[in-house]
Amino acid sequence: MTKRPKILLVEDDPFLREVTQTLLGKYFEVVSAASVTDATSQIAAQHFDVLLTDLHLPGAEDGLALMNVMRQAQPKAITLVVSGSEMNPELAGALQADAVIQKPYEVEELADRIRQYLQAS
Fold first, then answer.
1. By CB atoms within 10 Å of each CB, which of 2, 11, 43, 46 scores lowest?
2. Integer Cα distance of 107 and 42 in angstroms
3. Quick one: CATH architecture of 6-120?
4. pLDDT, tens digit, for every residue of 52-83?
5. Does the bond joining 58 to the residue before it have cis omega, within 30 degrees of 0?
6. What residues pair up with 100 in beta bridges, in sequence order?
7. Where do the domains of the chain lie?
């Protein structure tokens, strides 16, 4: 049996986190975190193929800080940022994420995009 890619899903909305984890869990191994602190602990403890993080998280740090942590610890991981705000192309490029995903999103489409990024890497 082939190893399923592992995703770190970071989302502060409990409902969205649970639904996304359940639906993506059909295709990937998904570990979820509700905050930058939780996610940083997970990054230190496990290997991930993909970071899927909300841009705006509670607390002093946000998805940008988390992407930096992931790049330092696991530079080969794909970084995907989710945002409910309209994102202009310049800002998306400045984030240095592999992709910016707009909320709301269809989880099945998100799974397809993740598979495409994994195949390309």
1. 2
2. 23
3. 3-Layer(aba) Sandwich (3.40)
4. 999 888 776 788 889 999 999 999 999 998 88
5. no
6. 81
7. 6-120
